[in-house]
Amino acid sequence: MAELSFAGLTYEQVVTKYNQTVVAVCVMRLKNWADAEDCFQNTFVRLYKNAPSLNDEAHLKAWLIRVAINECNSYIRKNKKFLSFEDRKDTAVDFPYDTSDVSWALVQLEPKYRDVLYLYYCEKYKVEEIADILSHNQNTVKTLLRRGREKLKSIYGGDGI
Amino acid sequence: MKNVNFDSLTNIKAPDAWIENALNIPKTVDKKKPVFFIKHARTLAAVACLVFVSVISVVIFLSNDKVTVQIDPDTKETKATISSAQTDYPTQHNEKPSKEQSSKQENKPQRPTTPYEAIEPPEGDVPQKPTTGNTDTQDPPSPTATPKPTEPVVKPPTDSTEKEDENPLPTEPCLPPEATEPEGWPPVEPGNPGNPGNPGDPVEPTVPDAPSVRPTEKPIEPTENPFKHIGLSGSAPLSAVENINFVYCMIYDSNGHLIGDSNLYSSQHRAHLVEIGDRVDFNYIVPDGLITKHDTYTYYFYDRDGVILYVGTKKI
């Protein structure tokens, strides 16, 4: 069988290149290593099984982020009746408290703000790209960005980012 | 303005085990499934059900048609090996057989169905009236018009196309035929008795696997038509029919005319045997349509050798 190609990359190359992006999304969303691993693996399983036809790597990355977010959402939805994230501190992701590195504050935001801020500041996406990835209106993304910044500031106590 | 970042989140690294597992996904995960069957699973299932039901319906329909074994009354060849539950017996008897059929019959001289007129019986094989078992027998019809009681009489084959009787060893249950119109039957010559069979001839051995009791599947229900489901019965001691597999019944009207098939050993003449204690009852259902007028009929139960087992009369 011919080897699958994703935007010119082999499957192994995709995993090697974008595993950090996917794990960041999963950890940010789930704040737990064990749960994040499940979604991490499921994301690449879907990549391999669905074999989406993507034009370039930008689309491939966006696709991975979108799928990872969906996997996390479905994971939370399926397990919210059985799991309490507060009770799973043994595998919880612990971001160090820092006045300059505010990742710890970001993960405390509501998911809708968290996703937008992560994509905007960490992945360096533009508003229209974020709107495309999250299937939102651009104005909605702008609003979420503005409100997310305010909430983030209120959490880490800074005066702006 | 304070400069903040998300370095710990952006620089987070996946454990090596995760990456290894992700790289092993192609080896563990099944390859792409046929998308068509996944997307259209319900449609395919519905179509498969429809096809299945259709096939079953067609099979049932065809099987109902083909189970019936049609016996051509003229060729009088019974496919005895067909063990079918439903057997139709001939309803018409007055059609002439084809040349091919007649020649086919002539090529089988050793069959036990050979017309017994053509075989001279030995002297000791003259059918005799049993001494017991017919206490209520009456005299047969006039000797000028009816056969002797001890000798079943059939019309000799005047036509080369006249057929032999059927295979005497059918495995099918003998059901009363649905005969309707005996019109066109050649009259029986009263003065030409025949021997129904010669046991000394090289005939195929009879297989004694036929059940002696032949339950009638169709219950006899009284109807307004007196010519329907006419039953004739007789009896004989068990010793008289000890080695007999089949008993036949022939009926003559008051004018000495044979009712029904001129072949006295056809399935139309076959009677049922019911063993009760030390006696055996003979039951014969006259096929509908053979008797169409009120008269006094004389009937004879006889065995394969032509031995009269019982003589009775019935007024209809």
Describe this structure in words.
The complex is a heterodimer of chains A (about 160) and B (about 325). The longest helix of chain A has 23 residues, at about 55-80. Chain A contains seven helices and two strands. Helix content of chain A is about 65%, strand content about 0%. Chain A folds into two domains: about 1-85, Rna Polymerase Sigma Factor, Chain: A (Orthogonal Bundle); about 95-160, Winged helix-like DNA-binding domain superfamily/Winged helix DNA-binding domain (Arc Repressor Mutant, subunit A, Orthogonal Bundle). In chain A, helix 1 (about 10-30) crosses helix 3, helix 2 (about 35-50) crosses helix 3 (about 55-80) and helix 6 packs across helix 7 (about 140-155). The model of chain A has no long low-confidence stretch (mean pLDDT about 85). Chain A has helices at about 10-30, 35-50, 55-80, 105, 110-120, 125-135, 140-155, and strands spanning about 5, 10. By secondary structure, chain B is an alpha+beta fold. Chain B folds into two domains: about 1-65, no CATH class; about 75-205 and about 225-315, no CATH class. Chain B has helices at about 5-10, 15-25, 25-30, 35-40, 40-65, 100-105; strands at about 70, 85-90, 230-235, 245-250, 260, 270-275, 280-285, 295-305, 310-315. The chains are: A mainly alpha (about 160), B alpha+beta (about 325). The interface of A and B includes residues 27, 48, 95, 96 and 106 of A.
